[in-house]
Design goal:
The chain is α+β, with helices and mostly antiparallel strands. Among the domains are: 72 residues, Ubiquitin-like (UB roll); 87 residues, Ubiquitin-like (UB roll), CATH 3.10.20. 19% of the residues lie in helices and 22% in strands. The strands form three sheets. The chain has a five-stranded mixed beta sheet with strand order 2-1-5-3-4, covered by helices on one side. A five-stranded mixed beta sheet has the order 9-8-12-10-11. One of its GO terms (cellular component) is microtubule organizing center.
Length: 230
């Protein structure tokens, strides 16, 4: 290629990509230039590998408003984007690792939901007086599990827990009526929840036995007990 051709080539763009629905994923830097990515699909394939997505990335969205990016030329240097498959855009505060979305407590009901990101480690969560569960959505193999932080010092009120799960899961079928283990057995009370374990939020429909863990938790994660990758 001539020096004139190199000079006329569009400059590379540095962008940061987050994982859709993952409140703790810190983002991955991707350098976009037309010599490396001839098509938008080629970029999506690279992003799939870069962020260790459980399923192929097929869409990029702006992190605040969820506007869809449709071609390479739409990307802006120094900006952030959210990578998703065919599932809908999950509205979180990605630029702050989702902590604003998860911040808050319901002390009056004995339920505490993710007030601090440092409790992502299950051993540390025990030290700080709380424990973590991760929850899948029944029949949904596109959305990663969401974290649920519970207080060890206050008994969980089951109705309050189901109300919180309803809000966080946003099931197509409506309210969460039960919580199941991955083998389909139903959890009947907060005392049965185990730190670091995975569960499935279920509405009025039957529990759908699917490979949630195998498909939605990164295989190369340093700690597969939580949806988090350094």
């Amino acid at each position: 290629m001539s020096s004139r051709g190199l000079a006329m080539a569009p400059p590379a763009k540095n962008v940061v990509v987050y994982r859709n629905g993952d409140p703790f994923f810190p983002g991955r830097k991707v350098v976009v230039n037309q010599r490396r990515f001839l098509t938008f699909e080629a970029l999506l394939n690279e992003v799939t590998k870069s962020i260790h997505a459980p399923l192929a990335v097929r869409n990029l969205y702006t992190p605040r408003h969820g506007h869809r990016v449709v071609e390479l030329g739409d990307l802006q240097d120094g900006c952030q984007y959210v990578a998703a498959g065919f599932e809908k855009f999950k509205r979180l505060d990605y630029l702050n690792h989702g902590r604003k979305e998860l911040r808050g407590t319901r002390k009056s009901e004995g339920l505490q939901v993710s007030p601090c990101a440092d409790c992502r480690n299950t051993d540390l969560s025990h030290t700080l007086g709380c424990f973590y569960c991760s929850v899948f959505r029944n029949g949904d193999l596109l959305s990663p599990p969401f974290p649920l932080l519970l207080s060890k010092s206050t008994p969980v009120q089951w109705d309050a827990l189901l109300a919180t799960l309803t809000k966080k899961a946003d099931l197509h079928s409506g309210a969460v009526n039960k919580l199941c283990r991955l083998d389909g057995t139903q959890v009947s009370g907060g005392e049965e929840l185990v730190n670091g374990h995975y569960y499935v939020a279920v509405g009025n429909e039957e529990y759908k036995k699917l490979p949630y863990f195998e498909l939605l938790v990164p295989q190369d994660s340093a700690c597969r007990s939580l949806w988090y990758v350094d």
